[in-house]
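Input sequence (66 aa), recorded before submission:
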Amino acid sequence: MKRMPLNLDEDELIWLKRIITDQDREEALEFINKVMKPRLKEAERPSGLQRTFDAGGPPGQIGSPR
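Predicted structure, C-alpha coordinate format:
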Protein backbone atom coordinates (compact mmCIF):
# COMPACT_ATOMS: atom_id res chain seq x y z
CA MET A 1 0.00 0.00 0.00
CA LYS A 2 1.32 3.43 -0.90
CA ARG A 3 1.54 6.30 1.55
CA MET A 4 -0.79 9.26 1.34
CA PRO A 5 0.27 12.62 2.79
CA LEU A 6 -2.18 14.28 5.14
CA ASN A 7 -2.60 17.88 3.98
CA LEU A 8 -5.16 19.79 6.01
CA ASP A 9 -6.22 23.38 5.66
CA GLU A 10 -6.43 25.55 8.77
CA ASP A 11 -10.11 24.78 9.48
CA GLU A 12 -9.59 21.03 9.08
CA LEU A 13 -6.58 21.11 11.39
CA ILE A 14 -8.55 22.98 14.06
CA TRP A 15 -11.40 20.48 13.63
CA LEU A 16 -9.02 17.53 14.03
CA LYS A 17 -7.32 19.04 17.10
CA ARG A 18 -10.72 19.61 18.69
CA ILE A 19 -11.67 15.97 18.04
CA ILE A 20 -8.45 14.78 19.66
CA THR A 21 -8.84 17.08 22.65
CA ASP A 22 -12.49 16.19 23.21
CA GLN A 23 -12.02 12.50 22.29
CA ASP A 24 -15.28 12.85 20.33
CA ARG A 25 -15.89 9.60 18.45
CA GLU A 26 -18.94 10.81 16.54
CA GLU A 27 -17.13 13.93 15.35
CA ALA A 28 -14.11 11.81 14.40
CA LEU A 29 -16.31 9.62 12.19
CA GLU A 30 -17.81 12.72 10.57
CA PHE A 31 -14.29 14.07 9.91
CA ILE A 32 -13.26 10.79 8.29
CA ASN A 33 -16.36 10.69 6.08
CA LYS A 34 -16.30 14.35 5.04
CA VAL A 35 -12.55 15.02 4.77
CA MET A 36 -10.56 11.81 4.49
CA LYS A 37 -12.87 9.52 2.52
CA PRO A 38 -13.13 11.78 -0.58
CA ARG A 39 -9.36 12.34 -0.59
CA LEU A 40 -8.66 8.64 -0.27
CA LYS A 41 -10.96 7.88 -3.20
CA GLU A 42 -9.22 10.53 -5.30
CA ALA A 43 -5.77 9.17 -4.37
CA GLU A 44 -6.81 5.65 -5.39
CA ARG A 45 -7.73 6.71 -8.94
CA PRO A 46 -5.18 5.68 -11.58
CA SER A 47 -3.21 8.67 -12.89
CA GLY A 48 -4.50 10.04 -16.17
CA LEU A 49 -7.78 8.12 -16.01
CA GLN A 50 -9.79 10.46 -13.80
CA ARG A 51 -12.26 11.44 -16.52
CA THR A 52 -12.08 8.43 -18.82
CA PHE A 53 -15.39 6.96 -17.70
CA ASP A 54 -17.33 10.20 -17.11
CA ALA A 55 -20.35 10.70 -19.38
CA GLY A 56 -20.85 13.87 -21.36
CA GLY A 57 -18.69 16.22 -23.39
CA PRO A 58 -18.28 16.49 -27.15
CA PRO A 59 -17.35 13.33 -29.08
CA GLY A 60 -13.63 12.66 -29.28
CA GLN A 61 -12.77 14.25 -25.95
CA ILE A 62 -11.92 12.49 -22.73
CA GLY A 63 -15.10 11.71 -20.88
CA SER A 64 -17.34 11.63 -23.94
CA PRO A 65 -19.37 8.51 -24.72
CA ARG A 66 -18.40 6.64 -27.88
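Checked by second reader. The mean pLDDT is 80.
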